[in-house]
Structures are given as structure tokens and as C-alpha cells.
Amino acid sequence: MSKPKRVAIVAAGINKWGMRPDATFRDIISEAGKACFDSNPKVSNKDIEGLVTSGVYPQRSGPQCHPSPVACEVLGVKPRLFQNTDCQCQSGAVNMRIIWSAIVSGLIDVGMAVGWERILVPNHGERYINAALACDHDWEQGFGMTPPALFAMPALSHMEKYGTTEEQYAKIAVKNHTHSAKNPNAHFQKGLTLEKALGARTVATPYRLFDCCVNTDGAACAILCSEEKAYEYTDNPIWVMGLGQGYTNWTIGNNPKDLTDWQGVRMSGELAYKMAGITPKDIDIAELHDCFTASELIEYEELGFCPKGEGGRWVDDGGNDYGGDVVTQPRGGLIGCGHPFGGTSIAQTHEIYLQLRGEAGERQVEPRPNIGLAQTMSGVGTQSMVTIYGSDDTQH
Amino acid sequence: MAEQMEYYTAMDLVAQQYEDTTKLYQFYTSLREEHKLVTTKCKDCGHVPWPPRTLCPECLSTDYEWVDMPSTGTIASWTAAYAGMPPELAARAPMVYALVDFENGLRMPTAILECAPNEAKTGMEVELVVGDVQPDQQGRRRVAPYFKPVGR
Lengths: 396, 152
Ligand SMILES: [Zn+2]
Known about the structure:
The structure holds 2 protein chains of 2 kinds. Chain A folds into 2 domains: 7-123 and 216-233, Peroxisomal Thiolase, Chain A, domain 1; 145-212 and 239-391, Peroxisomal Thiolase, Chain A, domain 1, CATH 3.40.47. In chain A, 36% of the residues lie in helices and 18% in strands. Chain A has helices at 25-38, 67-75, 91-104, 124-132, 147-162, 166-180, 194-199, 227-233, 263-276, 293-302, 311-316, 333-337, 341-357; strands at 7-14, 50-54, 81-85, 110-117, 202-204, 207-208, 218-226, 238-247, 285-287, 327-328, 371-378, 383-390. In chain A, the strands form 2 sheets. A 10-stranded mixed beta sheet of chain A has the order 3-2-4-7-1-8-12-11-9-10, with helices on both faces. In chain A, strands 5-6 form a two-stranded antiparallel sheet. In chain A, helix 5 (147-162) crosses helix 10 (293-302). The two termini of chain A are 22 Å apart. Chain A binds chain B through residues 124-125, 128-129, 131-132, 136-150, 152-154, 156-157, 160, 201-207, 251-254, 257, 259, and chain B through 11, 13-16, 22, 24, 50-51, 76-87, 89-90, 94-95, 97-99, 106-111, 117, 122, 133, 142, 144, 146. Zinc ion (ZN) is lined by residues 42, 44-45, 47, 56, 58-59, 61 of chain B.
């Protein structure tokens, strides 16, 4: 593959995530869209040539089909390329890859990714249906298993195979809640102690309450543009260095036999590293898919931050936190920020955009990082997307 | 919700199980009437997948026959779920869910009935039990392949 044209992020914004019964779909994307344009006054809504939305449940929670022109109208964008995309939890990353592809191919020069979810209906049956829809209709949904149970099984397997402990899982939740306490847009801002995490009620063994992320109402936006336009908009663009997506299978019965072997995540990382021309050692910060604590731990291993099986030890050594090898989840991850499916990947990008520009305030990683990795996943390790971003310094 | 739904499968989380609603109805007929777990076998290349398929993913043949699955298997991994289950099962929490391995190399997700969380173990032998789930919109019985500890 010849080297593709370079694409930069030149603006990004996010709204307040959490229980948002006060806000409709239009309200939520208005807030995040406004924050995105406000982040760089040089970029106008009139400049946006392509707009892609990513939302997983608009036809359940709204209901609203065909949301991309709604977003265009709300944000005053008149695009010549627009669509919605649903790739479950990877939706935001896939959204940005659609815009990236359109820019690389020359279809557009400037595009906007709008990712959101408005889902947190306070009703057990509705929440259950949303969770079940992530599983196969004919062969999984009817059995009553939802993501906590599905992701609990590899957590147990990792404990049995590698000696990982519930305390090591809990330490990941404590780290992420500690980080999100410094993030005013996060769902959770009260922090968390290890005692509280280990004393919380069980959701699905070995997971307790704080091992699990929550569904959240929220949105995030990012504006991508061609290298020709990037410096017109900012002196400090953040560059897309590499993209990779991995797939092994769909139904969980066909996952790799070793449940801790997350080949889909590993493939997505390897492809992105190769395209970026870097290795895991070059990563300064990472925003990972911590739908559950064991997910984050297994992702450390599959993305090469520590050897296979040593995720627990890496947690104990603090390799995953400020002052360690890779600062993971500086914004607080899904566990601290909540998880609005279609918005999560774009919020990860927003955080990396801030961190690489040195604009992350109280949670700024020092010294200012140069390379950040974002990863989101659908399926239990079987489908994953990784995007690697570099500061402007990495391009000279 | 109106009582008369023209598109009656909308938001029905349970698989359709009869000849007028799925090409794989034989799977459910075997389970419901013979208490037997079966899957498809490709008549052209011999591939035996789980779940059963009308189209062979290996050779794209549509010529298949039904073969018996083992009625016992072993737990590959499991969890006791206290939350995150359907409202009608919430009262039965904790529910043990597992991935069950069969000697033919296939693996399936299922619920383990009649099993307390402190009894469940990786490697435990379990046997098929046919469970009733919600009837379909025409009021016909629907079933699911669950498992329970062997001999219970
Ligand atoms: Zn075949």
C-alpha cells in the first residue's frame, strides 16, 4: 500500500455526559457540536463538506431513523457526503474512518464526525433489550445473557490461566474513576477507593459494580481535514498516523478457544502500528475500551503494552498510570466517563487531541505526549478498531 | 403498544422456531419434541458448524443434513449473573451462564439450570435440558437449549 494522504484533526468537542433526561437527541448533538466549533473558531460550520453520524440505538431511543441529515440541519452544515454508521461500540472510530477515507480519496477536504447516544431510559425492560441487541438475535439473545455475563467469562479464564486477581481488576476501576474525577464532562466525578470497589455488589462474577461501565447519554464531535487545509485552521494539528480493524468472528461460541486470546484486538493493533510505522513502545497515552475492567487488562496485553498474561502485574507496578509506561484512560475511560456507544470513540479522540496539544488541564500528561492510541471494541475481543494519533512534532 | 402488531417479530428477542418463520425449524422441532440437540452438517465438505447454518461458510454449499450434537458437555468458563438479565429472570438471580464445550469441538453459550454459583466450576460436566421461553406471537411454544449438572 502506498502511503495515503495525511489527515489531521483540527477541532474536537464534547458535552456533559451522564443521565440526561433534560436533553433530546437534537439537544445533545447541539451541545457537543457547539463545543467542537468553539474549540477552533477558524473552522466554520459552512466549511464542513462531509458529516457522518454514529449512533447505535436511534431507532430504539428516540425513535429516529436516518439521523445524519438531522445533525446537519441542527449544526447548519450543508454537506455533499453524509450518512449514519453503526458498528456497535466501534461506531465512532468507523465514523472517523469514513471521513478519513473521503478525505484521502479527495472527495472532500473537511469533514465532521458526530457521535452520540441517548439511551439511559430508567426502565429495566428497555435497558435489557438494548443490552441484548448487542448479541446474536437467533442464537444468543433469547438465552438471557448480556454483556456483563459475556465479558465475565474471559475475566474468570484470565484469573484461572494467569493468576490475575479481582483486586487487580478493581485497581483498574479505581484508576479510571480517579482520572474521571478531573474530567468535568465525565459521568462519574467522585473518585473511588479500592475498599469501595471490592465491597460493591456483584453484577456477574467476578465483576462487581465498579468493574462495569454504564450506558450514558452524551455526544462527541471531531473535525478532520486534508493536509492542504490543516495549517489554515491551526498551527497545531493532530495527525492520524495509523488505522486498523480486526475481526475473528461474531457469535461467542466461535471465539478463539482460549477466551483470553483476543485476536481481534491484537489484529487491529498490529495493522495500526504497521501503518503508523511505530511499535507499542512508542505509545505515550492510550484510550482503551474498558467496557469492563478485564477488557482493559487483556487489551494491555494484546496491544503490546506488557507481555501476554502479565496485565495484572503491570497494573500492580503502575505501568498503566501517570508516571508509568503508558498513561491509560487519562479522561477516565468508559468506566469513569460512561459509554454512549456511538460517541465513545470520538470522545477518546477528543481526549488525545487535547493531550497531544497540551490542553488537557488538570489531567494533562507530562511531559506532553506525542503519540496516542484509541481503541474500541464490539464483541468479546473479536472485533476491534485502533486509531493512532501523532502530535505535529511527529511529522517533522 | 397496540395489541395487533402487523410486524409481529419486532423487538422479539427469542428466535422464531416454526416452519413458517425460519428455514432452520428442524433444530427447534428436534429440541422441543425429541429433547435432542442437533446442528447442520454440510453434505459437500462435511463442515459441522455451531450455530446451524443453511449456507456452509466453508464451501458455500446450501446442501446440508441434520446431525446429533452430544447431549453432554463441559463448562469452558462461566459466570453467576446477579443483574443484567431480562426482567422475567431477575427474580431467579443469580443465574449461572456458561460456555459449554462438546467433544465434537463445538462450543455454545447457554444457561446452567439447577446450579448454585458455589457449585459451578470450569470443567464441570453438564447435560442438556430443554427450557421453555416466551411463546411466539401466535401462542406457539418456544424452547431453548439449556444445561444442568449431570445427574441432577
Ligand atoms: Zn461445505
